[in-house]
Specification:
This protein is mainly beta. The protein has one helix and nine strands; from the N terminus they run H-E-E-E-E-E-E-E-E-E. The chain has one helix spanning about 1-20; strands at about 20-40, 45-65, 65-85, 90-110, 115-140, 145-150, 160-175, 180-190, 205-225. Strands 1-2-3-4-5-7-8-9 form an eight-stranded antiparallel β-barrel. Strand 3 and strand 4 (about 90-110) form a beta hairpin.
């Protein structure tokens, strides 16, 4: 996976010097819905999405009439929330995984003035911060009792993540050099987000083959430099 990422990086940079038909820079901002694929706790808690923020910068270069290559630098908020209600109590909480991600993708376009495109690519993520918020409740006494079970999961979360992405979008010209980009994408981790482990705490934190998944909808502005 690392070799593929390095080769794609070299391809993008070298093509930038060889083909200079159109080169644009831009900013983007989006909202994400993230969750996990895999097993978290044998008690089968109810897993829900985490809603996050995905701001970033982008470089876009036209390689052909129907093809552009794009690199981004994004701050991505991923993770999930969970609830497990049992007789006598239960637990609830969330895991927040925040990454600096660098995706590389190829956009395949159709249209004249307004361009429609589909894209696919690979992404490298670097963990910035990991947090856990957990609470346990007990109803064994007349008055319900809630315990704070939050802890720092950083040592159990993998520091690097490689993944893939696919998406669809539309590019609308606002003036001669400025275009508005609207797109949606599905991100899927190809490497585990956390180490496989079995926890004996309450709530348990036993991750088994956990991979990040997310859907992102974003709005961006592109300025054509060349």
């Amino acid at each position: 996976m690392k070799k593929i990422f390095y080769l794609l990086t070299v391809f993008f940079l070298t093509t930038n010097f060889v083909v200079a038909q159109e080169f644009s820079i831009g900013i983007r901002d989006g909202i994400s819905w993230s969750w996990i694929k895999g097993s978290f706790n044998s008690g089968n808690p109810d897993i829900k999405c985490r809603i996050g923020h995905v701001p970033g910068l982008l470089l876009n270069m036209r390689a052909a009439a129907f093809l552009t290559l794009q690199m981004e630098i994004n701050y991505e908020e991923k993770g999930f929330s969970y609830t497990n209600i049992m007789d006598g109590g239960g637990f609830r909480g969330s895991y927040d995984f925040n990454y600096l991600s660098i995706p590389f993708m190829a956009n395949f376009e159709i249209g004249n003035n307004i361009r429609y495109f589909g894209y696919a690519g690979l992404s490298a993520g670097f963990l910035v911060k990991a947090k856990n918020y957990s609470s346990a409740s007990s109803t064994s006494s007349p008055d319900p009792v809630i315990y704070d079970r939050s802890y720092d999961p950083t040592e159990y979360v993998n520091k690097y993540e490689f993944g893939g992405l696919v998406g669809l979008g539309i590019r609308i010209p606002l003036c001669e050099k400025v275009k508005m980009n609207i797109d949606s994408r599905f991100n899927f981790g190809l490497t585990r987000a956390a180490q496989n482990r079995e926890g004996d705490t309450f709530p348990p934190d036993d991750f088994q083959d956990v991979y990040n998944r997310s859907v992102v909808v974003s709005l961006g502005i592109l300025y054509r430099v060349h």
